[in-house]
Amino acid sequence: MTRVWILPMPLVLSGSVVATGLTLRGSPGRAVALLLLFALLAGVNSPLIFPRSIGALEAQSRSEADGRPIVFWRPGCVSCLRLRIRLGRGARRLHWVDIWRDPAGAATVRAANDGNETVPTVVVAGRLPVNPDPEWVREQLARSA
Description:
Elements: H1 8-24, H2 28-44, H3 56-66, E1 70-73, H4 78-87, E2 95-98, H5 103-112, E3 121-123, H6 134-144
Parallel strand pairs: 1-2
Antiparallel strand pairs: 1-3
């Protein structure tokens, strides 16, 4: 659980320290702007921007029932963030598995990627493409509807 906050928490703490220093030096406007920037970076790198993660086994059973793709991801992954943003509202229809929270999900990703935890890895009809084009994922999602 704490592993997913390894990057966001230091960003917020660092921003707070720097903003405090700027405030003490008489630059409260710059301090607020900088703190907002650090908070934005922390939010983007946190699990909060992604739909609620579920376990790999639950995702697999749901995917078998509804045919929707499964996305294995982890916080701080730029490619995962790019996929999430490019999918827009459609991302909520996918099954998201945070490999840092789910050992079975991490094992699935390692098995598909020669022992590496390369994400995003998407499961669609038994295929496991790594870092797929968001447009392709959107097409797969449309087919499952």
